[in-house]
Design brief:
By secondary structure, the protein is an all-alpha fold. The protein has one domain. It contains 4 helices and no strands. The N and C termini lie far apart (about 45 Å). The relative contact order is 0.14.
């Protein structure tokens, strides 16, 4: 499989056309729409974890049960999609990877704070 094949597969899994990155405001969604958007995001996150060889210390299997991690991954997907728009600058994928370093640091910090493992989910305290 070529890099172009990977790109086409990832974009098709995201459910968005190449010219239509989708920004999700999770705060404004009803329960049904949250479920639909999580399903859509899960495909991209699985591709992202595999492509960048990330482990549970960065993106735990229960990521979708943690608001901050879901927000971060959703924003990353939107940024990634926007890098491949027809009018995107040739340097946009580099900007994604520059910002990815900071996002991965935040994901590691949140995952460490939560203490979830490969096999165990730890719910967030209600007072957060």
């Amino acid at each position: 499989m070529t890099s172009q094949d990977d790109l086409i597969r990832a974009l098709s899994m995201s459910g968005a056309a190449i010219d239509d990155p989708f920004v999700v405001c999770w705060r404004d969604l009803d329960d049904v729409t949250v479920t639909e958007e999580l399903d859509r995001l899960m495909d991209w996150v699985q591709w992202f974890i595999t492509r960048y060889r990330l482990d549970h210390k960065v993106v735990p299997p229960c990521w979708h049960q943690h608001g901050a991690i879901t927000e971060e991954l959703s924003a990353l997907r939107t940024f990634w999609e926007s890098c491949y728009l027809e009018d995107a600058a040739p340097s946009d994928p580099l900007a994604f990877h520059r910002d990815l370093e900071h996002a991965l640091r935040r994901l590691r910090e949140w995952s460490s704070h939560l203490g979830c493992s490969r096999t165990t989910h730890r719910p967030e305290p209600d007072d957060l």
